[in-house]
Amino acid sequence: xxxxxxxxxxxxxxxxxxxxxxxxxxxxxxxxxxxxxxxxxxxxxxxxxxxxxxxxxxxxxxxxxxxxxxxxxxxxxxxxxxxxxxxxxxxxxxxxxxxxxxxxxxxxxxxxxxxxxxxxxxxxxxxxxxxxxxxxxxxxxxxxxxxxxxxxxxxxxxxxxxxxxxxxxxxxxxxxxxxxx
Length: 181
Ligand SMILES: [Zn+2]
Ligand SMILES: [Zn+2]
Description:
Layout: E1 23-25, H1 27-32, E2 37-50, E3 53-66, E4 70-84, E5 91-105, E6 114-115, E7 121-123, H2 125-137, H3 170-180
Parallel strand pairs: 5-6
Antiparallel strand pairs: 1-7, 2-3, 3-4, 4-5
The structure holds zinc ion (ZN) (2 copies).
The site of one zinc ion has 6 residues, from loops.
């Protein structure tokens, strides 16, 4: 079995499991030789992908194909990113699809971004981390019409108007006075 589900993995205090669940032993495929493929399905809840990336889940099918250069990893992974709205900072669970198509070089080579060492472990954590960080940089809204936070008192305006909305900008107040005349 390349993907050892049910293996006891380290559990962090926040409930996240170690990224060991994203490592597969592909020794059987390396020895099988070019042209062999293996299909697997990830379904991992709450995982610490890296020091700086926690995901609510990683799931989806992956196809591993042995080639002369190593193992080609193809698939479609869905990851749950625990993000926050960039306007109101409320937590947002963001579902993202990662279309994966990467060659993991074997034997490992410096020319390749991803590779498999002599221990025959194929680790998709660095790949998932890289894609997650790219997606995260784009920012997300909790809803398309998020009203954000009041720049004055910091209240979340999605929950209703804050007290300072009654206060009018002094320049506008002056204008109002003029209009009255
Ligand atoms: Zn928001
Ligand atoms: Zn306010």
